[in-house]
């Protein structure tokens, strides 16, 4: 009975492994383009929860990404499934996408810092004429 139990466990573990490699689609998206698409899809999925200029939330930006790269969701899904079955290639694609997104984030952070400093300068410049006017009003009232 104990041996039968071990045999079932062994067969179960053996059947759990899958080495399924999907066929290469005819219209496979190249790795570098796939990385760019994944970057844009990550940004689009994150932007869904942020209000846009029209103060709308929950806008689905995914179709815009597909239109930008002139693909449809079926082609992306077929290519994505193929690359997922090749773990090393997919890991390279995701690593490249992550690195490029981090570079973009650094650029946006620098740009925001520059814009914030310009905004502070413009506020100071706007306040200085008001201070001069206040001083003039005070001097006239005395």
From TrEMBL:
It comes from the Bacteria. InterPro entries: DUF4296. Residues 105-142 are annotated as: Disordered. Residues 25-106 form the DUF4296 domain. Pfam families: DUF4296 (PF14129). Residues 131-142 have a biased composition (Basic and acidic residues). This is DUF4296 domain-containing protein. It comes from Polaribacter pectinis.
């Amino acid at each position: 009975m104990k041996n039968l139990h071990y045999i079932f466990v062994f067969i179960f573990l053996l059947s759990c492994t899958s080495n399924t490699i999907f066929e290469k689609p005819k219209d496979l998206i190249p790795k570098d383009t796939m990385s760019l698409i994944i970057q844009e899809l990550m940004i689009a999925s994150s932007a869904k929860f942020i209000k846009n200029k029209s103060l709308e939330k929950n806008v689905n930006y995914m179709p815009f990404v597909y239109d930008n790269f002139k693909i449809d969701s079926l082609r992306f899904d077929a290519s994505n499934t193929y690359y997922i079955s090749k773990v090393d290639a997919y890991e390279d694609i995701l690593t490249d996408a992550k690195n490029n997104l981090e570079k973009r984030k650094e650029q946006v952070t620098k740009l925001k810092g520059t814009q914030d400093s310009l905004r502070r300068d413009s506020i100071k410049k706007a306040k200085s004429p008001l201070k001069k006017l206040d001083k003039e009003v005070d001097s006239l009232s005395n």
